[in-house]
Design a protein that fits this description.
The longest helix has 21 residues. This protein is an alpha+beta fold. The radius of gyration is 23 Å and the shape is elongated. α7 packs across α8 and α9 runs antiparallel to α10. A 6-stranded mixed β-sheet has the order 4-3-2-1-5-6. Strands 7-10-11 form a 3-stranded antiparallel β-sheet. The protein is about 35% helix and about 25% strand. The protein is built from 10 helices and 19 strands.
């Protein structure tokens, strides 16, 4: 169970109720599709669940978590209220960034005597700093994607479809230790590669096509993320130039990233290279984002970001150029920010690959 002292320093509340699956997993390490986690001062916490998870959830007791099973005929909110009464809770933080309107209204209507305070952004801030264990999980997830990339190169050839590449890539990640996908795999070839988040289609790869692959593995609930663009046969002069500009921009960002810079500065480093080569209008998204249990987490690197990159946070560096009717290129690495430098966890070759 993660220590919650920092969270209570950020917001003056008596307790925090965690309903979202992702945040329950974050705080407890226990995966379940249902449950209410009540965080209390002094790292004294209560996990409310139903009979489906009760026996498994008892494993949390070793971390000092009180596990409560919802009784037959008693609603989860009633059990939650009993906990609040037991611990004299008057002010409760809730996940405004995660709850549906219906879930929020249920809390408000059924707990009229409780003052609700939003803490979603505070939870996200705390989550942005990874523990040593979380860093190891993300490193493992990234190593799985690197292995899968090295093997998928032997599969890509003229005639294979984008969907077939996606299926094979996902199989390779699973075979090498992935417990799931970090997100839906993106495969875009030829003119489809001008669409940054294209869905894999039945389009067959042709000679001269760029093939952009954006994919990630999930390991113990934590994500990886990488993108590589390769060519099947010789690319056109324009596509080769675009690739070299994107690679130069990405290297500029990675080589000059440091602990303490803000996301706007990292974005600017990459964007200026693309601008100076005449492709400014074709770089249509931010340079990067962090990840963890979610594939997109704070901090972010884009034109408006004031997020400061701090030690034990992650950031991707993924500039791209996308020209409708021609194609596109994106190259993405995953960076770990540390006090004494930035570590690039992505080991796959990013010099131009022609299959």
């Amino acid at each position: 169970m993660k220590n919650t002292d920092k969270l209570f320093q950020l917001k003056e509340v008596d307790a925090i109720v965690v309903i979202s699956e992702k945040n329950r997993l974050y705080f407890t390490g226990f995966a379940s599709t249902f449950g209410y986690l009540v965080l209390l001062h002094g790292n004294k916490n209560v996990f409310i669940t139903d009979p489906r998870y009760y026996e498994m959830a008892q494993s949390l007791e070793k971390d000092g978590v009180e596990v409560v099973q919802i009784a037959n005929g008693v609603g989860a909110i009633d059990t939650l209220l009993d906990i609040f009464t037991k611990y004299n809770v008057k002010i409760v933080g809730y996940e405004d960034t995660e709850l549906t309107v219906s879930e929020y209204l249920s809390l408000k209507e059924n707990l009229p005597q409780i003052e609700l305070v939003s803490v979603g952004k505070d939870i996200n801030f705390v989550r942005s700093f990874k523990t040593a264990e979380e860093i190891d999980y993300i490193k493992k997830a990234q190593s799985i994607t690197d292995v899968a990339f090295s093997k998928i190169l032997k599969v890509i050839k003229p005639g294979i479809t984008e969907k077939e590449i996606a299926v094979e890539l996902e199989y390779l990640m699973a075979k090498n230790g992935a417990e799931g996908l970090a997100f839906d795999t993106i495969i875009a070839s030829g003119i489809n590669s001008s669409k940054p988040h294209a869905h894999p289609s039945d389009k067959a790869v042709e000679l001269g096509d760029a093939v952009t692959m954006d994919f990630g593995a999930s390991y113990h609930g934590y994500c990886s993320d990488m993108t590589r663009t390769v060519f099947v046969g010789e690319p056109s002069d324009e596509m080769r130039k675009i690739y070299n500009v994107v690679l130069l921009a990405q290297k500029m960002g990675i080589n000059n990233a440091y602990c303490g810079m803000d996301g706007k500065e990292l974005d600017s480093l990459c964007r200026e290279v693309i601008k100076s080569n005449g492709y400014e209008q074709y770089f249509t998204h931010g340079t990067g984002h962090s990840l963890g249990i979610d594939i997109h987490e704070t901090p972010y690197a884009n034109m408006r970001s004031t997020d400061v990159l701090k030690a034990n946070q992650f950031i991707t560096c993924e500039p791209g150029i996308y020209i409708p009717g021609l194609g596109g290129v994106r190259i993405e690495d995953l960076l770990l920010i540390q006090e004494d430098g930035v570590i690039d966890l992505t080991t796959s070759d990013k010099n131009i690959i022609i299959l």
